[in-house]
Design goal:
alpha/beta; five-stranded mixed beta sheet; binds fe (ii) ion
Length: about 260
């Protein structure tokens, strides 16, 4: 049996279940989908994986920049180089993994025609935002700390020039009621066959959309874990804590599909 790659939904401060699941499944790699909010530096939370030489990859979520302490435990962790935001790395099975951490915020960029500035960005780069920020409000010479968890056009543009097999995002693609069509466009530009996201704490079945959108999409719920193979087939290793309560979103998707028939 091949050793699975585990995709982990928002841990929000808890990591024991990930360590246990990686051990039980003999995981070949562990991929975190953001909002880790570790109570200790990330490399300490995941020390058992590091000791067993299980590769860890992650993207940050919006909440990972909620405080100075959280920022330091993620961006200042010894695992900081495992953040795949804005780049492509190779997974143990040879697949190319790309990442887009953070969320869209109107202050910077909300890519929707109904949003502020009709979807145009206020800042295209973090540096541009930092330069427009009073020096005392900057964080680590960048924009205010909170916006380290914000998506800037520069990252999406850079990714669009790269190719990947799997794209992990904190925001959801367009299939999701709170998702973004821009992520569909990005996945299509990158030729990514699979998009896996966190953030929404649900695991909606989007398979009816896969053919039209050109990629398989999977959400992983709150502290949920899915093993997803090279063909994009997902096996739930651990059900997300709110997956059952969020079933109404599935009905929304089914309704929309019905309207489009
Ligand atoms: Fe989030």
């Amino acid at each position: 049996m091949t050793r699975p790659i585990l995709y982990c939904g928002d841990p929000h401060g808890r990591f024991h279940h990930i360590v246990v699941a990686a051990s039980h499944t003999k995981a070949s790699a562990v991929v975190l989908l953001g909002d880790m909010e570790p109570e200790r530096p990330l490399h300490l939370e995941l020390a058992p994986l590091i000791e067993r030489r299980i590769p860890v990859f992650f993207i940050h979520g919006n909440h990972d920049a909620d405080s100075d302490e959280l920022w330091m435990r993620v961006w200042g962790s010894e695992l900081a180089s495992c953040n795949v935001h804005g780049r492509v790395v190779e997974l143990p099975n040879g697949q190319r993994l790309a990442g887009l951490g953070g969320v869209f915020r109107e202050t910077v960029w909300h890519p929707s025609a109904s949003a502020a500035r009709a979807g145009a960005p206020a800042f295209k780069t973090m540096q541009e935002h930092a330069q427009a920020t009073p020096r005392q409000d900057r964080w680590q010479e960048g924009p205010p700390r909170k916006h380290w968890g914000t998506i800037y056009p520069e990252t999406v543009d850079a990714l669009a020039d790269l190719r990947a097999d799997v794209l992990i995002t904190h925001e959801a693609p367009g299939y999701h009621p709170n998702g973004f069509a821009l992520i569909d466009t990005l996945a299509q530009a990158m030729d990514a066959g699979v998009v896996i996201h966190g953030h929404h704490h649900d695991r909606i079945d989007s398979s009816a959309r896969w053919q039209a959108q050109g990629f398989k999409s999977h959400g992983v719920g709150l502290r949920g874990i899915s093993a997803i193979d090279a063909e994009g087939r997902a096996e739930v290793v651990l059900t997300g804590e709110l997956d059952g309560q969020r079933a109404h979103r599935q009905r929304f998707i089914d309704d929309v599909d019905g309207w489009c028939d």
